[in-house]
Amino acid sequence: MSKVKVVKKSQGGTIAQNRRARHDYFIEEKFEAGLSLQGWEVKSLRAGRMTIAESYIIFKNNEAFLVGAQIQPLLSASTHVVPEATRTRKLLLSRRQIEHLMGAVNQKGYSCVPLSCYWKAHLVKLEIALVKGKQLHDKRATEKDRDWQRDKARIFHR
User: What is the pLDDT of residue 107?
Assistant: First the structure.
């Protein structure tokens, strides 16, 4: 008798995106970080109940933390756990990456913000970026370039 292997498809895709970050900042470098989560948080993420629009990353004691991200608890969460939607979550990065990010944030005037949260196999990953702020005229120039690219594609499509 042969055994049949059942391969469970992993749930792929994006959980949450920070579209505001792409509008407000120049993105210099991107990194992929893991998230340290509790069990109820993973269940909520599978339901897509995460917001990272107002979140940012801080560094304390050579560790990186995600502050301000909201994971709304499910109604069917366990009764013995008190879910806290906006708790500070630890980011899982290598020491070299943390030192690089800390040096850029402390000395060069960069900021560190999350761009998106997604599934990678069965793990939750957070795409973070080293960013510099845009001025109002920079935002206008970016919008103007985007409009021009759209018009150019429309003209050449004909």
Answer: 84
Determine the pLDDT at residue 43: 86
Region of 41 (left: φ > 0; alpha: ψ -120 to 50; beta: rest) is alpha
Cβ neighbors of 123 (< 8 A, separation 6 or more) are 34
Burial class (CB in 10 A: 0-12, 13-18, 19+), 77: middle
Query: How far is it, in rounded angstroms, from Cα 119 to Cα 146?
Result: 29
Residue 78 pLDDT class (50, 70, 90 cuts): low
Q: 103-128 burial by CB neighbour count: b if 16+ within 10 A, else e? A: ebbeeeebbbbbbbbbbeeeebbbbb
Nearest to 113 by CA among 101, 131, 99, 133: 131
pTM of the model: 0.77
- Each domain of the chain, given as residue ranges in start order, spans 14-157
| Range 14-157: architecture per CATH | Beta Barrel (2.40)
When pLDDT is averaged across residues 65-84 and rounded to a whole number, the result is: 81
Between CA 48 and CA 58, with CA 53 as vertex, the angle to 5 degrees is: 110
Q: What is the pLDDT of residues 124-138, one digit of tens each?
A: 999 999 998 877 888
